[in-house]
Amino acid sequence: MADQSHQAAALPLPARAPRRVNLNWLGVAPFLLFTLLFLIFPIFYLVNGAFRTPEGAFTLDNMIALTGPDIWPSYWLSIRLSFTSALLGALFGSLLAWAIHLGGLPGWVKRAFLTFAGVASNFAGVPLAFAFIATLGRLGLVTLILRDVFGLDIYAQGFNLFSFWGLAITYLYFQLPLMMLMMMPAMEGLRSEWREAAESLGASAGQFWRMVALPVLTPSVLGCFLLLFANAFGTLATVYALTSANFPVVPIVLFQQIRGNVLYNPNLGYALAFGMVIIMAFSNTFYFLLRNRAERWRR
Questions:
Q1: Are 251 and 234 in contact (CB under 8 A)?
Q2: What pLDDT digit, counting tens, does each position of 141-151 carry?
Q3: In this structure, what are the phi and psi dihedrals at residue 52, rounded to the nearest 5 degrees?
Q4: pTM for the whole thing?
Q5: Any alpha helices (H) in 103-163, and if so which ranges?
Q6: With CB atoms 3.0 to 4.6 Å apart as the test, which of 172, 184, 204, 293 could cross-link to 219 if both were Cys?
Q7: Which of 295, 188, 168, 141 is CA-nearest to residue 229?
Q8: Distance (Å, rounded) from C-alpha 167 to C-alpha 85?
């Protein structure tokens, strides 16, 4: 036994294989760099500027000013406008996704709708403002047709494209197709087995939607609503081009503070942007929580 253990100890140990360096993370390196340069570092820059005076001293005055009578109404206006456009977009976008998914449309029609939705959801800014002015402005095509052909003067009835509801309707152009695109996977996630099981138990189509489909789809609808809210809350180019900066939503006031006019105060502008970041962070956090809850039904 001693000789055997002596011989075993004398045997050379097997050479260790060289450790391989895992380079898979290099695939996400460009994304991480992009995130650092255009998200993380700018947020730190905003936070630092929000708590500084123009001379560089620490102050809380900029954050306190957000609750003042000159700034808070802009936040409230942005919140109401974003909520309204997100609510309308979520409602009609969900109905449109439901109609396209269950309407028995030919495949090419469904693909055409999805293609248009992908384009329309990214159509904003100056082109969108010009399109709505040419369509629903005082001398827009639809306005003139309604007035001259049908005898309906929408502006005499109180409609104004450059008002709160005019902006909400304009926002719907990109909010509604975006909602439709986000809800299509949720609609497709409704399994046929669930409907068959409900029908085998004697449930009607209405009971299936009320007791099975809607509870499953609700987290997706609420999560997409929050995403639409964040999307509308940060919109600048469309409202700026449509109202010539005369509609004081937060992005307009921020633009004025940073770029300069009688309201010029860059550090207050940083505080405005920081307040927007906080609202966006809450909205997106709840969106991810609701999305994770919705995805449990697809596993």
A1: yes
A2: 999 999 999 99
A3: -130, 150
A4: 0.84
A5: 107-120, 126-136, 141-148
A6: 293
A7: 168
A8: 9
